[in-house]
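Tutorial, part two.
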Amino acid sequence: MPAGDLIEVVTGMEPVRQRFLQIQWAAGRQVRSFSTAPFVAVPPGDNTAEDQAVDRGVEYLVVLEREVLATPGVAAMTLDSVRRGVQVRVVDKLPIKLIMADGELALVPLTTEPGGEPAAVLLHRSGLLSAVEALFDAVWQRAYPLRMDASGALDEQPEPAITELDRKILGLLLSGLTDESVAGQLDLSLRTLQRRLRALMDLAGVRTRAQLGWHAARHGWA
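Running the prediction step on this input gives:
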């Protein structure tokens, strides 16, 4: 693809808004996003594409800047998203706004202040998009998960909770045992073991076994 086709500059409130929604409509597997204040082109509550994508099985990983939760109505909308299965984490400060679909398309705003003409860069698969993807993954690793507490309110967890069985699974795998050996030692079916590992990868926000092992060692999971 020619270099000029890898980056598209989008200007104007409605074009930026349309690209924001189109990226989510195009997603087949996963949408990852950074949400920061202030909101310029797409105010809270206007992201109609999220519900549609979640309903068709698209996974959402969302990192919120802490200030965003103080915006009127955002906490309630975030709680509703968590109930629908959106994975939400929070950090004190984010470097940029972004939304990315399947690691193939990303929209990064160029202007973030209200009052000016909104502008953004649409990135197609390229080295630059890979750098944005790596940035998201690094921030996701250190962000704090938001979940519902017993009363149904949002609760920030400093560390994702894992069970003693999870610790045993990770410890045996990190010692070099195969899935079959680990399942046999813990009296689990192979399918149950692999389903639990998939859940742990989702909890850690990683996509490979190697990344899960690194995360487990860093956070004392095993």
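The mean pLDDT is 84. In part three we will examine how such features are distributed along the chain.
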